[in-house]
Amino acid sequence: MSEKDNLGSTKPDEQPDKPLVRRMLNLVLAYRGRCVWVIILHLLLLILGLLGLSAAGMGVDIIRHRDNLSLVPIPFGLRPPESWTPMRLLCVMGGTILVVSLIRLGLFYYTKMTAARVVQDMMIRLRSDIYEKLQRLGFRFYDSHMSGGIINRVTSDVQLVRMFMDEVVLEGIILVLTLGISLAYMLSIHPGLTAACLATTPVLAISTYFFTRKVKPAMRRTRELYDHLILVLAENVQGIHVVKGFVREPQEVAKFDASNRKILEQQRWLFRISSFYNSSSGFLTYINMTVLIGFGGYLVMTDRLPLGSGMIVFYGLLGQFSNQVANLAAIANRLQMSFTGARRVFEVLDMPVEIKDAPKPVRLSRTRGSVEFENVTFGYDSGKPVLIDINLKVEPGQVVAIVGPTGAGKSTLLSLIPRFYEPQHGRVLIDGVDVRDLRLDDLRRNIGFVFQETFLFSNTVSANIAFGSPDSSPERVAQAARVAAAHNFVIELQKEYETIIGERGVGLSGGQRQRIALARAILLEPGILLLDDPTAAIDPQTESEIQVALSNVMSGRTTFIVSHRLSTLRRADSIVVIEKGRIAQVGTHEQLMNMPGHYRDMANIQFNILRRRVIQARPKHLPEETPQHAAWSTGHDENTQTQLNAHTTE
């Protein structure tokens, strides 16, 4: 299984819970002032709730002892005026409950809004931190991680970390306060009844411990399954043309359904164990209530416990206490979920940035365009070199073509110039300075890129061209498009340069996307241009248009171009042939055509393919000796010779 397949498969033991909790608490402590205020607000809500409960209990005692109000237990030794009737005192209790309820209503809304703002601020900051880190990570990270897992970390995993602050820390503190105050109040009413009713609490605590031990690995596995589901979905959406073209819709549905069912099975298992735990804790709660009815009822009937301010208030407190104890399972469950998300978020935040500026980087305002490879060896895996002992020097303004079989390392060679990767041995120099010593932003602003797979953003044509130079004027954008031979088709679009071209440039042809990519590179005014097979997947007519654009673009710039098309290669000042990671040949088109090797073999293959097409295109209905055939042959063979010359020598 590849590293990509193992994304997010952090084992429970890889990052112990205690350091993880400390790190997560540090996130919360950044907002400690506001969190303390939220806790104070919750404490006030709790006190107001107990005040309303006590008023309700006193109301029951007033009804029971309406003939002798002196028997009604009133806290703090307060006594109502003797002129007050039981009905008046009962109305005061009812009014107290109503006022307290209204205050709690407003306070509850304010508390929830305050807590939500704190949590949202933390989540936005964390999401921004992880996205910023993703921008700084090198290509090795993206090469070894699934896109679905990366997206999950920025979205749902950050939500799980939010859960820690909102539903674990804040709710956990509130739970402890509620348990403590409720327990103290119950003990003040009757210690013996409190002990009897809470005898099952240790059993519930032990079951909670084993429940969390069971849930922890299951939560981690669920996140891995979600990663795979998102990957399947993303690949299907991006490759929908391939799916439909090969009539693979049923198989793709089956693959998605299989991933979905794995998640369902995992969630069902979690639901079963959670349901068992909740049922058990509910059963223990009913045992507590049974003890209260039996023992508490006995105390009331023997006049050792008031009915209202004693048993009824105790009933409310016990229910509140039992609910909070039962909520321990939910908090433990959320804690494990937040652990799973936090591990994956911190994995990205802790990922070392391999490609970064030197301690004292050299500034590069404008490169002359000199590029040199000195004894460069590079491999994506250290034990499997892709490029071996590369030595190559390119003078400013030269056009260098890179040729070789598939997998020879051509694109890899280009990726070392802007430091997308760093060689294991040797160095790459620009203007005589090691690229590792240059300021990274300066280095890449001096290099223009046009990749084989053109990526355009879902934005306007103008925004895509100005992606690397967002402050460019419309005139500069249009001029770059003219140089790239893109202006004519852009002005025919519905809104010209303000036309939204859609995700990945949908709606434009391959040649049009490629020319916009060229314009994007030109607008940077780079001293070095890297073209990775820009005419690989386009038709001959579009290729001729791209060739015109390339001639404009390459003029006066050091250019590296990966290509297999001889019509492109013959324009180069020098052609470098790479085979099995090594430089096999270097020379001009004419020189290499006179040398045995890959380049001449490739040229002859293309030459023979073109000759065969020309022969097959001759009309068969004309007799060979007729004037009509001679006229066709003369005109067509002149055109054929021109094409053949373009594939051999000027």
Count of structural domains: 3
* Mean pLDDT, all residues: 77
Q: Write the CATH architecture name of the largest domain.
A: Up-down Bundle
Number of strands: 10
Fraction of residues in helix: 55-70%
Poorly predicted residue ranges? 1-16, 628-650
Which percent range describes the beta-strand content?
A: 5-15%
State the CATH class of the largest domain. Mainly Alpha
Number of helices: 21
**CATH topology title of the largest domain:** ABC transporter transmembrane region fold
The main β sheet shows up as: 6 strands, mixed
Give me the CATH superfamily of the largest domain. Answer: ABC transporter type 1, transmembrane domain
Radius of gyration: 38 Å
Structural class estimated from helices and strands? alpha/beta
In spatial order, strands of the major sheet run 6-7-8-3-9-10
Instruction: Kindly report how far apart the N and C termini lie.
Output: 52 Å
Q: What general form does the structure show?
A: elongated
Feature tags:
650 residues; elongated; ABC transporter transmembrane region fold; disordered C terminus
Structure explained in plain terms:
The protein is α/β, with parallel strands linked by helices and 650 residues long. The chain folds into 3 domains: 4-349, ABC transporter transmembrane region fold, CATH 1.20.1560.10; 371-603, Rossmann fold, CATH 3.40.50.300; 605-646. Helix content is 62%, strand content 8%. It contains 21 helices and 10 strands. The protein has helices spanning 17-29, 32-64, 86-136, 139-144, 147-189, 191-197, 201-238, 240-245, 249-301, 307-349, 410-416, 440-445, 461-465, 474-483, 487-490, 510-523, 540-554, 566-569, 589-593, 598-617, 627-646; strands at 371-378, 387-394, 399-403, 425-430, 433-434, 447-450, 528-532, 558-562, 574-579, 582-587. The strands form 2 sheets. Strands 6-7-8-3-9-10 form a 6-stranded mixed beta sheet, sandwiched between helices. A 4-stranded antiparallel beta sheet has the order 2-1-4-5, covered by helices on one side. A hairpin with a 2-residue loop joins strand 4 and strand 5. The longest helix has 53 residues, at 249-301. It is elongated, with a radius of gyration of 38 Å. The two termini are 52 Å apart.
